[in-house]
Amino acid sequence: MPQSSYGTTNRTANGNSTSGAIAIDTSKPVASPRALSPDLLRGLLMVLQAVDHCSVTQGAWRHGVALESEQDGTIVNRWNDPVPWTARMLTHLCAPGFMFLLGMGIIYFGRSRSKLGWSSWQMLKHFAVRAFALAAINQLVFTLPFGRGRLVILNFVLLALAVNYLLTGLLWLTSNASEQVLSRLLQSFQASSDDEVERPLLQDETRHSSAKSVSEWAMRCSWHVHNGILLALAIITIAWNQWLSPHHGHCPLDTSPGYSGPTEPGRTSLGPWFDFWFLIVQNKRVISGFPPLSWLSPAILGLLYGRIVLSRKWKAYTINASNALFGVLLMLLFVLTRFFHFGNLSEDCLRMPEQIASRGGNQYLASFRSFLYITKYPPSFSYMAFTMSINFLLLALFGTLPEKVARRIPTLLTFGQSALFFYIVHLMLYVGIASLAKTWFGHELDHLDPLTGKPAIGTEGKPAVMWISWLIGLMIMLPLCRWYGGFKSTKGVNSVWRFF
Fold first, then answer.
1. Rg (CA), the chain
2. How far is it, in rounded angstroms, from Cα 290 to Cα 279?
3. What is the DSSP letter of 93?
């Protein structure tokens, strides 16, 4: 079994950890190639994301597993058709997967730059500059052209990525520093306790061995304490979506026929500025479907995962088995949310014929699609458990592939290693393709365009047009990403082109 390319760490000359994880062998740091599993997962998520964006720009079908919104506090009465439903369930993996890989990437970035001698201040500057670049791209590429001069902010996802990249980077730098401080405090405390015990017969070699043992014990304790803190933060930052929900994750029981919940996103009493960070915002000046802090949890989970993976040289089997185990455990958590009604933002919201037929029963057990219904806006605990379960299982699957096979999987590595470039270019590309598709095959739809407020035009009812458009877009993106990957490889580590 080959060794995994995940698990190594690096240390500075004074022995301090620079990856936010303890090392087993600090005298001989092992250089490892780029890990392929995260890139393969990222590439697959890009391909799935393209399905979403192609269908939305083209108006191929309603955007959701149900014809109503996947929003907290919204009653759903009708399922989407089987193909759109399946496509949407697959694309649910994308947003939490990207945030998880973002957090994990912070650890990899820290390790690689530490080897180059970067200080914490240099890394902090990088995090801030890259976050600003992401926010600026969001404004220049999306808000200005699509906002039509009316919107101040149009946040598809880039703004949330920018905020969470900066916050996760700051969290890593802070935990890395505090981990060393706690380690020194524990070491000092243990050493002072040992000094109180007289050991006149100990030789110098024995004393040195004892001091080394105390040092390793202090490092391990500090490392585990900080892992516990990160896990607690990951849980808190997904739980606050439930705590802050204006509807407390429930839909009203007494409604008139045809009622489908609130026509606008919920609000808190703390004002629109607070709501922007935690809730969906849609008004005349701002449309934000991805409130940054409601998506922070998977980024912190990725940070924790990266710390553990890079704490030592793991065998590939151990990494893959652990990923599979985490996936199974998260799926069990998801199942528990269905039976015990916790962590959902859709209680009493399913009003399909199957729920009406089984009135009084568990709404999630009325049908297969009911069981899998999850709320994305903002993400519920059940949403995060389900999607991250699949993402961990995919990491396990990709990790079992020999490197030669992994590198031959069409498009995935190419897309996965040029993710931001792919994201920006493919959106503009699919907007252009959609314009042609609507001209040739479009017709007026039975709902309004959320950006213009006018009747939407789309290719709904002609799925072949959407799928062919999706494939054409990927075929165009493949050589572009290959070119960009080669171009980026010629640039230095400080180049802005590395951001993409």
1. 25
2. 8
3. T
Residue 56 CA: distances (Å) to CA of 59, 141, 292, 469, 473: 5, 17, 22, 12, 14
Whole-structure pTM over 0.70, yes or no? yes
Spatial separation of the C-alpha atoms in residues 71 and 80, rounded to whole Å: 15
Express each pLDDT in 155-171 by its tens digit.
Answer: 878 999 999 999 999 99
The helix or strand, by DSSP H or E, that contains position 55, with its residue range, turns out to be: helix 36-58
Angle between helices 36-58 and 381-399 (to 10 degrees): 130
Q: Would you state the pLDDT for residue 27?
A: 33
Using the 8-state DSSP alphabet, how is residue 2 labeled?
P
Cα–Cα distance for residue pair 494/16, rounded to 1 Å:
24
CB burial string 487-500: b at 16+ within 10 A, e below: ebeeeeeeeeeeeb
CA 63, CA 456: separation in Å to the nearest integer? 13
* Strand 153-155 to 286-288 pairing: parallel
Hey, what are 412's tokens? 């995935």
Alpha carbon distance 199, 207 (integer Å): 9
Structure tokens at 429: 């590309």
Nearest to 289 by CA among 5, 63, 44, 43: 63
Stated length of the chain: 500
